[in-house]
Specification:
154 residues; mainly alpha; Globin-like; two-stranded antiparallel ribbon
């Protein structure tokens, strides 16, 4: 049984069973904690303030909870395409993704046991790299020199 009282079958990600500690409650806490940090960040906060009106934050947070639930718990709650909004941010670059990853790492390390934090970060690093490649491609830039951001780079 997970903390939220719902039984689930064993979920395997990359050949590794997910820890039972990872549930919807933990995902919600991570998402809400992370975006609280983002909103106060000098680099990332203005990007979000320019795009998400204050009254729309509950919807955004719910959508991000659905995204992470689908990503880690294999639920089918997330409906959307996460890349297009990022493509629309004109000067989004490596520094923004590094800061995003650093804040995310701080959040998951504070809120999750190490094995769960590692799962979150594995996915976050993959997402960041995929988005960076897609953004460069969309801008007509070469992707050859775009190396993945790794933990030691943060």
């Amino acid at each position: 049984m997970s903390q939220n009282g719902q039984s689930r079958g064993t979920i395997v990600v990359d050949g590794v069973p997910l820890p039972d500690l990872l549930d919807e409650t933990m995902i919600r806490e991570v998402v809400h904690g992370f975006y609280a940090e983002i909103r106060h960040d000098d680099l990332l906060g203005p990007i979000f303030r320019d795009r998400i009106e204050p009254h729309k934050w509950p919807h955004h947070l719910a959508k991000m909870c659905d995204f992470w639930s689908a990503t880690l718990l294999r639920t089918s709650r997330y409906e959307g395409r996460p890349l297009p909004p990022h493509l629309a941010i004109r000067d989004l670059g490596a520094a923004h993704f590094r800061r995003w990853l650093k804040l995310f790492r701080t959040t998951v390390r504070r809120m999750c046991p190490p094995e769960v934090a590692a799962l979150f970060m594995d996915r976050a690093f993959r997402i960041a790299h995929s988005f960076r490649l897609a953004i460069a491609f969309n801008r007509g830039e070469t992707t050859i020199g775009i190396a993945p951001i790794v933990d030691k780079d943060l």
